[in-house]
Write a structure and sequence with these properties.
Length: 289
């Protein structure tokens, strides 16, 4: 028993950096990160500047958006800095450098829609882009291009697939919400929805998965005797960080105060989000709050 505990302590020590070492590492990385961000911002400013030659703008786009859709709405910026001819000149350079790519096709679709008012051609270009789209981290911008092109159901599908992989992807969240909003607006106006559109709304309204998750979570909690100790330990740890010197963490949990009741809830949710950690297997009964 003592041997396993000693081994466990060595494992814990080797897996965690001291705050001082972590701060030093972060401090060294900060200048590098700042330099990268500054370079990205400088290139974006150059691309947006009215005096930058179209060939240079096209080169920046081809380099910075390789393998991804064009920045949504950039054509409108170009229109304000030289009209349709400038937008077409930038597009020509992008197509020369990156022909038939996701970047070139989505940019060409936006130019066709915004500059030439050719919705049919824009839709055709977006369909080509969608055919070559392999489901990347650029799903959010891709879905936005589809939305602006009137391809609502396709935008919904692309955004939803991305959110299955990464629920925190903000652009995909926005595209997904806008697509559903447009579908609901169509349904509310009395328009006849296609079968796939009706199915998309039905899936969104279905709460069956949430109910199943609730049932499984209750089953998990009831069947794990260690869980209350783990949650209690992480709650206490978090509250100790908030306490002033000499203050009892339990004083923060006076539940007759609505604000402190909310604090308690945040502490418990944080404990759940952290999950179970095998380093907490030596918790004692007095760790319970």
């Amino acid at each position: 028993m003592a041997k396993s505990r000693h081994k466990h302590q060595r494992k814990r020590g080797s897996g965690h950096r001291s705050p001082a070492r972590q701060a030093a590492r972060t401090g060294r990385a900060a200048p590098v990160l700042d330099a990268i961000v500054a370079q990205i911002e400088a290139r974006a400013a150059e691309a947006h500047a009215a005096g930058t030659p179209p060939e240079r703008v096209g080169a920046i786009l081809a380099e910075d958006f390789a393998g991804t859709p064009a920045p949504v709405g950039f054509t409108t910026t170009l229109l304000g800095h030289g009209g349709g001819e400038r937008a077409r000149a930038v597009l020509a350079e992008v197509q020369r450098r990156a022909p038939d790519t996701l970047l070139a096709l989505t940019f060409a679709a936006e130019v066709a829609r915004v500059v030439d008012a050719d919705a049919k051609r824009a839709a055709g270009l977006l369909e080509q882009a969608l055919d070559g789209y392999a489901g990347t981290e650029a799903a959010g911008p891709m879905a936005m291009h589809l939305l602006h092109g009137g391809m609502v159901l396709e935008a919904h599908a692309v955004a939803q697939e991305r959110l299955f992989e990464d629920p925190d992807e903000e652009i995909a969240q926005e595209a997904h919400a806008q697509a559903l909003e447009l579908l609901y607006a169509r349904a509310g106006s009395g328009a006849k929805l296609a079968r796939l559109e009706r199915e998309a709304l039905a899936r969104f309204e279905d709460r069956g998965l949430f109910y199943r998750l609730r049932e499984e979570l209750a089953r998990f909690v009831d069947g794990d005797a260690e869980l209350p100790y783990v949650v209690a330990s992480t709650v206490r740890e978090w509250l100790e960080e908030l306490c002033e010197d000499g203050q009892d963490p339990l004083e923060l949990l006076q539940l007759d105060d609505p604000k402190r009741a909310g604090l308690a809830r945040l502490a418990v949710e944080r404990a759940w989000l952290r999950g179970l950690d095998d380093e907490d297997d030596d918790l004692a009964d007095d760790d319970l709050i």
